[in-house]
Amino acid sequence: VIARWVEQHGEDFSDFGRKNCFQLNDTHPACAVPELMRLLMDEHGLEWDDAWDVVTRCMAYTNHTLLPEALERWSVGLFSRLLPRLLDIIYEINARFLKLVDQQWPGDVAMRREMSLIEEGDNPHIRMAYLAIVGSFSVNGVAGLHTQLLESGLFKHFNTLWPRKFNNKTNGVTQRRWLSHCNPGLRELLNETIGDGWQKDLTKISDLASHATDADFRKKWIEVKRQNKARLSDLVVAETGVRFDTSFMFDVQVKRIHEYKRQLLNVLHIVHLYDRILRGETAGMVPRCVLIGGKAAPGYHVAKLIVKLINDVAKKVNNHPAANDLLKVVFFPNYRVSSMEVICPATELSEQISTAGKEASGTGNMKFMMNGALTIGTLDGANIEIRENAGAENFFLFGLNASEVTELKKDYRPNEIIAADDDIVRIMNLLESGHFNPDNPGLFDLLTSGLRNPQDPWVTIADLRAYINSQAEVAKAYQDVDHWNQMSILNTAGSGWFSSDRTIQQYADDIWDVRPLS
Ligand SMILES: *Cc1c(COP(=O)(O)O)cnc(C)c1O
User: How many whole angstroms from 368 Cα to the centroid of ligand 1?
Assistant: First the structure.
């Protein structure tokens, strides 16, 4: 970019900041801040103040996570060996920034330590997110709740200093891949019903809403879903050997394996259904195929153990004759975009069950909604906006909200919750007695002791009863085929907001200041 600039404008950088914008996609490219300073000063002769003006006019930062343990920190020692000049520049950025902090909070040493770009200690580290914030004119979160929590939590002091820097850009997904390409049956049905304008302007998909009450249209809607379920069944049997009956409800949770996403909560519900089958209390149950898929990071031991548990529970359930016509469970291996293209068109129930306040946005939730799945979910990330756009009556909400989670953590007693609820006692007994791992006693103790720990950051047990009850509501709703499919149609009809076309237009209007050519 600089080479091209110099070709056109020579060494005059006074307009460079106005004409260029670099969107830092997470903290991974945060070194762009000191590196652009270095280029402008060392290679193009600018003074500090002029270079800093340019940098802070063209850098913008998107944050993607609220988990403090996921924020990048790089050791000063490593930096001084590999990038000594950038370290010099970071120190100077920090010295000037801390003067500003001292103007805002005079003499407040604790605040200086908290906000410094350098985390002090035996082995000091550079806080890359803070470097990105200080060097940028815009800082955005990726869903409404996420941005609010950045402003009031993780980055609250920065928000006090620079409230106008912070803004929201709710994520989106492209309807060209996540509807048109991956769901040709639905594409053709939409085209013949509302025209094909939705492919370029997804807000037009709201025209579908008026067809939700049309019985002939619903018949076609159901037939498209049936064919997509048959296509996924073929993939599942090829990948796992398990047969999914297309008359069963397809209940799906696919996403990276992480404790905050609470695949374990899903497993606890599966064990509950299995337990009800064993004791013969199946009234109101609806036959389900539950699919869980996702990759675990190689070094994330607990996540790998969750994958093992899903596989062991699936083996037991799928081999029990009493469960045969009520429940099938698979762990779908090697989950990836090309598998999601087959999975989301076939899904009827989308599991979005993270601990409230932890999922920045989610985008899987949007792919499912676009393809007519109903969501069972917490008030987290973009689920909140999905519920607003689908209508609260077309969304299965359960569990604590973000502020209730914060409040609960002051005095969380999972063992008391378990002891007071017979169903939950039975679930924990099955897991802790080794029912699913007879050849490997104690294998899952790390998981069950985590659930019972008052310090459990994901408060899984706190949401379990509400989740089981909400799943019973799902089962009841699924039995009313007409109403279920009305709700399904209204989810697709409400998905216009979640096009990445809308997201990119907002970045263009509010951050990049670029307009389309006439
Ligand atoms: C959409 C998608 C994701 C993101 O899923 P979330 O549920 O939002 O975490 C992850 N992996 C793949 C392969 C996807 O297609």
Answer: 10
